[in-house]
Write a structure and sequence with these properties.
Length: 341
């Protein structure tokens, strides 16, 4: 038996035992300015179009992973509850990807905690799979580049590939696995935008993003949305680079409306909005008309992300609180990179 001793771990190379340290990582969710909706390859999560997002500082998921010989199967706890069904199998499939890359064949214990409601269109799968990718790859002793991490996170949840990075982030569409990854456009200090999130419903959504992506192709509008994506990506990227809020506002709202038009015209149709969602959308447009720098964008859920400049944020929050149906407000600055802790 050969024993190799490193500071943090003991490998018994020819024996049975291999103990690796638990590793923890924190990642933030992101709000898409140009949305990912629909895949050309759903098993690899190769998106139909590129997307751009802003990482959210105030929201985070912390995940700890420990590979251990003492486990007979993977054990997954999310926000204090044992994961079952689909959410369990998505995590174990992701651990399998990491086992394949590292050559490990031990099972893992995964504990994940988010400080915001899950599965309500607040991109919990983005921060969840970004944190899982980072923690599990470190726990398996893999040294991956940011690009590798982004590609790997993408396979767990598409939007997670953007949550590897902080600031303003673009995910490139490609037919090839190796070319579909995210990169930072500008870091979080470049533009002090705030996401004021109006929570109108905290219940878990009825249609998951994953089934929504699968239905996207059935909408006759999806092709037009995808064909026009390069124009929207260019406009959005340029608006960020120029810190041009009005230009950003128009393209962000238009892109969100396009995605929801595809959802509404899919087979079966998907309607994520509640009455309060529409009330907020109308008000946001009116408030912008009055000179406040704000625009709305809505992911796969009824809650409204009100993107605004730091100067407008307090006034927007005050006005949102007065609208009927707004249950709670979350506020976030632009967040940083996913990190090991
Ligand atoms: C509406 O990344 O959650 O938030 O790959 O199936 O996990 P899966 O989907 P997911 O889809 C996010 C969709 C969106 C838009 C976006 O974030 O770009």
């Amino acid at each position: 038996m050969i024993m190799v001793d490193c500071p943090a771990k003991t490998f018994i190379v020819e024996g049975l035992s291999m103990n690796l340290e638990p590793r923890s990582a924190i990642a933030h969710p992101n709000i898409a300015f140009i949305k990912y909706w629909g895949n050309i390859d759903s098993s690899l999560r190769l998106p139909a179009n590129g997307s751009i997002s802003m990482t959210l500082a105030a929201l985070e998921t912390k995940t700890t992973v420990e590979f251990s010989e003492n486990l007979l199967s993977d054990h997954v706890v999310i926000n204090g509850a044992e994961a079952k069904g689909q959410s369990y199998s998505r995590v174990t499939q992701h651990l399998d990807r990491i086992r394949t890359l590292s050559g490990l064949n031990t099972m893992a214990k995964v504990t994940s905690q988010s400080n915001f409601p899950l599965s309500t269109g607040l991109a919990s799968s983005a921060s969840g799979f970004a944190a899982l990718t980072l923690a599990a790859s470190k726990a398996a002793d893999l040294e991956l580049t940011l690009k590798d991490l982004s590609i790997l996170a993408r396979k767990g949840s598409g939007s997670a590939c953007r949550s590897i990075f902080g600031g303003f982030v673009e995910w490139y569409a490609s037919k090839n696995d190796a070319d579909s990854y995210a990169e930072q456009i500008m870091d979080q200090s470049y533009w002090n935008l705030i996401d004021v999130i109006a929570i109108v419903q905290e219940d878990q959504k009825e249609v998951s993003s994953t089934s929504g992506h699968a239905a996207a192709e059935s909408s006759p509008l999806q092709n037009g949305r995808v064909q026009d994506a390069v124009r929207r990506l260019n406009d959005c990227r340029q608006a960020i680079l120029d810190r041009n809020f009005n230009k950003l506002a128009l393209i962000v709202e238009s892109d969100s409306n396009m995605m929801h038009s595809v959802m509404l015209t899919s087979n079966p149709p998907i309607l994520y909005w509640e009455a309060a969602t529409i009330t907020i959308m109308r008000n946001i447009v009116n408030w912008r008309g009055e000179g406040l720098e704000v625009c709305y964008t809505i992911d796969a859920g009824p809650n409204v992300h009100c993107i605004c400049t730091a100067e407008s944020a307090l006034e927007i929050e005050k006005r949102l609180r007065k609208l009927s149906g707004v249950q709670r407000i979350l506020k976030s600055r632009v967040g940083g990179i996913a990190r090991v802790i």
